[in-house]
Write a structure and sequence with these properties.
The protein is about 35% helix and about 5% strand. The longest helix has about 35 residues, at about 1-35. The protein has helices spanning about 1-35, 35-45, 110, 115-120, 125-130, 170-180, 205, 210-215, 235-250, 280-290, 325-330, 330-340, 360-370, 380-384, and strands at about 60-65, 70, 305-310, 315. The termini are far apart. The chain has about 375 residues and is mainly alpha-helical. The model is unreliable at about 15-30 (pLDDT under 50). Helix 6 (about 170-180) crosses helix 9 (about 235-250). It folds into 3 domains: about 35-100 and about 105-145, no CATH class; about 145-270, Cytochrome Bc1 Complex, Chain D, domain 2 (Orthogonal Bundle), CATH 1.10.760.10; about 280-380, Cupredoxins -  blue copper proteins (Immunoglobulin-like, Sandwich), CATH 2.60.40. It has a two-stranded antiparallel ribbon. A two-stranded antiparallel sheet has the order 3-4.
């Protein structure tokens, strides 16, 4: 009987210890969640061995066209510009250079602040408020972290003409927008003038990152009437993330103009190169959605249509008809007209119209489709 009491008492003690540890752990989390800028600044100055310091609101006033942008983010993110804070935890950490491979990053956070790149509520000092997590804060301005913040490079820098150092994820998204033939249905001013699906010229100004990501991955998530197909590649996070970053960058309202850009605003000429000589190789590139010898013309047929090589191996999308026999069954004139306007032959087709192709580009696609020479053998035909 006494042993039973001992066992019971032991269990009670163990339970008390576990509960106490849980409470302490929770309290620690609550402390971090509830930490104020004063707490972070005390921790920062102690970490760098500073004995005499003043606790204060760190504020950057950023002059933009029409307004002064108040940025107090570094009241907590106090080590952002200090290389000595490299490896520090949480908001105390040094922000790595935005432009890779340079000794001194041209982005001075003490002049430009943080929200110009990361969004959020830059006036706030409370964690959740500052990160744009409170009800009522525009979803289009919720916090951007990591590579997604590259979407805001183009508040200051022009998107047209060439690449931008430090914005590799955005650049990949721009390439994917063309490669995946998004431009065939969606218009973006200066990129395409398609009218089959919603215009994305201001997609980043209207919607938040999460909304855009979700809409690419599950087209009906935010619009149950959406006719956008669900592509095979939407489960690859790197692909969807890069494409989302590119769409988030599409904002009509720019914070910077040439006069107010702290880093300089350069808008190089957008050079358009078109395919001028039809060839199979040019058609292959258009079919795959990749550039051909520097051409700005793109296709991306492979995102929706499958085809078979000479051995019968199949590749491509599953949304539209297989194109292995398209030229043999329909003829070159039919296929050419269908590329320009699919509704000429199928009124309910969701395929975009590629009216912007010139004759050389249309002929190139037809030439490439004509190379599909796979034939079903008699045994395969009997089994079908």
């Amino acid at each position: 009987m006494f042993k039973d009491y001992q066992i019971l008492l032991g269990l009670v003690v163990i339970g008390f210890i576990v509960t106490a540890l849980s409470v302490l752990k929770s309290a620690d989390i609550i402390m971090v969640e509830d930490a104020t800028y004063r707490d972070w600044q005390h921790a920062y100055y102690e970490a760098i061995g500073e004995d005499e310091y003043e606790i204060e609101v760190k504020q950057v006033n950023l002059e933009t066209e029409g307004i002064t942008m108040v940025d107090r983010c570094q009241s907590c993110h106090i080590g952002a510009s200090n290389p000595e804070a490299m490896g520090f935890e949480g908001p105390l950490a040094f922000h790595p250079p935005i432009v890779p491979g340079v000794d001194k990053d041209p982005h001075d956070f003490n002049k430009m602040g943080c929200a110009i790149c990361h969004d959020g509520n830059s006036r706030a000092l409370d964690l959740h408020d500052a990160h744009g997590e409170l009800h009522g804060w525009p979803s289009s301005l919720t916090l951007l972290t990591g590579k997604s913040a590259q979407a805001n490079c183009f508040r200051c820098h022009a998107q047209e003409g060439g690449t931008l150092a430090g914005a590799a994820h955005f650049e990949k998204g721009r390439e994917l927008y063309l490669e995946k033939a998004c431009w065939g249905c969606h218009a973006i001013e200066g990129v395409s003038n398609a009218k089959q699906a919603p215009n994305l010229t201001n997609s980043g100004g209207k919607f938040g990152y999460d909304y855009l990501y979700e809409s690419i991955q599950y087209p009906k998530a935010n619009d149950e009437n959406s006719k956008m197909p669900k592509f095979d590649w939407v489960y690859d996070d790197e692909t969807v993330s890069a494409l989302t970053t590119y769409l988030k960058a599409q904002q009509v309202k720019k914070i910077r103009t040439e006069k107010y850009a702290p880093l300089g605003y350069q808008k190089p000429k957008s050079i358009e190169n078109r395919i001028t000589q039809p060839s199979v190789d040019a058609g292959r590139a258009l079919f795959a959605g990749v550039s051909y010898m520097g051409s700005t013309s793109r296709g991306g047929c492979i995102n929706c249509h499958a085809w078979r090589n000479s051995d019968g191996d199949i590749a491509g999308g599953h949304i539209g008809p297989e194109l292995t026999w398209s030229i043999r069954n329909r003829g070159t004139e039919y296929v050419r007209d269908h590329i320009v306007n699919s509704r000429m032959h199928a009124p309910d087709s969701i395929m975009p119209s590629f009216r912007q192709y010139n004759d050389a580009e249309l002929d190139s696609l037809v030439l490439y489709l004509s190379t599909f020479d796979y034939k079903l053998d008699s045994n395969a035909m009997e089994s079908m």
